[in-house]
Amino acid sequence: MAKLLLEIVTPTERIFSGEVEDVVVPGVEGELGILPEHCPLLTQIAPGELRYRQEGKENRLAVGEGFVEVTRTQVSILTDLAINEADIDEQQVEEAIRRAEAALREPYIGGEDLAFVQANLEKSFAQLRVKRRRTH
């Protein structure tokens, strides 16, 4: 069976590199399923759940904003956040959501601060969805 080389990279580290059967990424216009021999493309990803299957086992990560480049044999993902499901601390994520929601209620917030808080809130919600999918 044909395989894809999947590479997931953040600004600080390579999160994953290996052969997989398929990949599903959270695109800005919805989920994008990628199989070997997929047509080449470059598109933006949104905070959400990234899934890939390796040796028949499905793996899940929470990812932030970024880009995916697809060739017939490789999927390269550059994102500002990539956390394996097992490494997500639900309590810490819930606290981050509370802090972000409190910051959004402040009357002085705007501009870059507002964009930063909203982006962090989206990433926190993505982590929570990935973590709770299996535990609840």
Give a count of the beta strands, DSSP E runs of length 2 or more: 10
Low-confidence stretches: none
CATH architecture tag of the largest domain: Sandwich
Helix content: 25-40%
Task: Kindly report the average pLDDT value.
Answer: 90
Q: Numbering strands along the chain, what is their spatial order in the largest sheet?
A: 2-1-9-8-5
Oligomer: single chain
Strand content: 35-45%
- How many independent structural domains? 2
Number of H- or I-type helical stretches:
2
Give the ordered list of helices and strands.
EEEEEEEEEEHH
CATH classification, class level of the largest domain: Mainly Beta
Structure description:
The chain is an alpha+beta fold and 136 residues long. The chain has two domains: 4-85, F0F1 ATP synthase delta/epsilon subunit, N-terminal (ATP Synthase, domain 1, Sandwich), CATH 2.60.15; 88-135. Helix content is 30%, strand content 42%. Strand 1 and strand 2 form a beta hairpin. 24% of the residues are buried.
Write out key terms for the chains shown.
136 residues, alpha+beta, ATP Synthase, domain 1, 10 strands, five-stranded mixed sheet
Task: Write the SSE topology.
Layout: E1 4-9, E2 14-20, E3 22-27, E4 30-34, E5 41-45, E6 48-54, E7 57-63, E8 66-70, E9 74-79, E10 82-84, H1 90-105, H2 111-135
Parallel strand pairs: 1-9
Antiparallel strand pairs: 1-2, 3-4, 3-6, 5-8, 6-7, 7-10, 8-9
Helix pairs in contact: 1-2
